[in-house]
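To the wet lab folks,

You asked to see what we're planning to order before we commit. Fair enough. Below is the target structure as tokens, and below that is the sequence we designed to fit it. If anything looks off to you, flag it before the synthesis order goes out.
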């Protein structure tokens, strides 16, 4: 099955930002150190709380998206408590300026559930304790269906013309920049993850 044009466009436009974020986070290496896990969970919680607050006014009204069912901050908070960590400050609001931008940012948020499943499986295969890391696979077997549901919505809204596609692209790039700023520990160069 061929991917919808908007999905190809978003993947192509964000490839470099996505690769840079993955390299700077290096989550498999960082999560192998139990002492790093509370800090990682705390940063993910702050990021998701901020994104949920910024995106809710735009995305809650979208029929069929089920935005409220996709909120992850409560689950991350439970994981953080299980890890014995403490919350960090929620970043300053950075609301999108259009529905297209909000959808682009949500593409990044929801795409992380697919990458999270890969990380959780890799940790499990290495025999790592997954306690406090359920937020990497929040949907379980529903991950594929949830992703396809989002792709259908992105595709439907992108039919509004190239301007909407451009807004989604800008939103996705913004989403990766926000994720990098919030999730990567300060002064972490590419390829070197820190707690």
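Sequence we intend to order:
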């Amino acid at each position: 099955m061929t991917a919808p044009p908007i999905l190809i466009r978003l993947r192509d436009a964000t490839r470099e930002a996505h690769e840079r974020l993955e390299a700077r986070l290096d989550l498999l290496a960082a999560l192998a150190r139990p002492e790093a896990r509370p800090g990682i969970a705390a940063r993910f919680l702050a990021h998701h709380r901020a994104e949920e607050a910024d995106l809710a006014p735009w995305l809650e009204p979208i029929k069929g998206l089920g935005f409220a069912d996709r909120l992850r901050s409560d689950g991350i908070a439970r994981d953080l408590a299980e890890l014995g960590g403490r919350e960090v400050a929620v970043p300053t609001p950075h609301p999108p300026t259009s529905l297209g931008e909000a959808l682009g940012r949500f593409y990044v948020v929801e795409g992380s559930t697919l990458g999270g499943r890969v990380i959780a499986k890799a940790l499990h295969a290495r025999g790592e304790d997954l306690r406090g890391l359920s937020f990497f696979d929040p949907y379980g077997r529903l991950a594929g269906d949830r992703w396809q549901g989002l792709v259908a919505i992105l595709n439907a809204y992108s039919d509004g013309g190239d301007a909407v596609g451009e807004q989604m692209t800008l939103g996705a790039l913004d989403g990766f920049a926000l994720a990098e700023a919030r999730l990567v520990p300060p002064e972490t160069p590419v390829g070197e993850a820190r707690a």
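Structural context that might help your review: The mean pLDDT is 94. The two ends are 40 Å apart (CA to CA).

Thanks,
Computational group
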